[in-house]
Amino acid sequence: MGKVSLPPDKLSDCVAFFRPNRMVLVTTRERDGTVHVAPFAWCMPVSTNPPMVVLALLTRPRKQHTLVNIERDKRFVINFPNHDIAADLVRSSYRYPAGVRKIGNLELEFSPSQCIDVPLVKQCRAHVECRLETSLVTGDHTLLVARVLAASYAPEQYEDGYILNVEKYLPCLHLGHKTSPDGQLHTFVIEAKKGSFFVPYELPRRGPQKAAP
């Protein structure tokens, strides 16, 4: 199958090939103590001992509000949503007029965290409470490296080994979106089926090896 190369002036479009994105909702505190929530995709674990995660947030042309809050307070929660709250996840990405509270226009509910003064999103299946350790500006984003202070999850949604039961609890997997004057058209994975297969340790014996292509 032939491949098409992106031209040099379109290399930034390569981020599309990392989709579907496993979306998260990040909660922080505003300067006045109210709750702020926003969705992000560039988030992953980077260490298990100690447990550490990274989150990449936009720095320019406009610093994201979540980044401002985390740089100030050093605390945030990563919440893992399922598809049933996808519409609120999208709405939480919108910019609201001055004086309009975002969370007042969402159907999200919040509950206290275990270790930090930042709440969890109650409808999410899992939560990771974080403390900022260091940050690094990487082009137009800032990479936030954080230590995990606590984590919690809904056990009924997981099988042994923390395997999500995707047939009953569909994760929020985002494929992309288009913008129009009236709103945004977002595309998500809306069906999932779990399958397992065994791969034996049939390793080749030491001896002549094929040359790499």
Features:
213 residues, mainly beta, Pnp Oxidase, Chain A, seven-stranded antiparallel sheet, three-stranded antiparallel sheet, 2 helices, 14 strands
Give a nutshell description of this structure:
With 213 residues, the chain is mostly beta strands.
Describe, in plain words, how this protein is organized in 3D:
The chain has 213 residues and is mainly β. The chain has a single domain (14-188), classed as Electron Transport, Fmn-binding Protein, Chain A (Pnp Oxidase, Chain A), CATH 2.30.110. Helix content is 7%, strand content 38%. It is built from 2 helices and 14 strands; from the N terminus they run βββββαβαββββββββ. It has helices spanning 65-73, 86-91, and strands at 21-22, 24-29, 35-40, 43-48, 51-58, 75-80, 110-111, 120-121, 126-138, 141-153, 158-159, 163-164, 173-180, 183-188. The strands form 4 sheets. The chain has a 7-stranded antiparallel β-sheet, with helices on one face. Strands 1-13-14 form a 3-stranded antiparallel β-sheet, with no helix packed on it. The chain has a two-stranded antiparallel ribbon with strand order 7-8. The longest helix is centred in the first third of the chain and has 9 residues, at 65-73. It is globular and about 70 Å long. The relative contact order is 0.17. The mean pLDDT is 94.
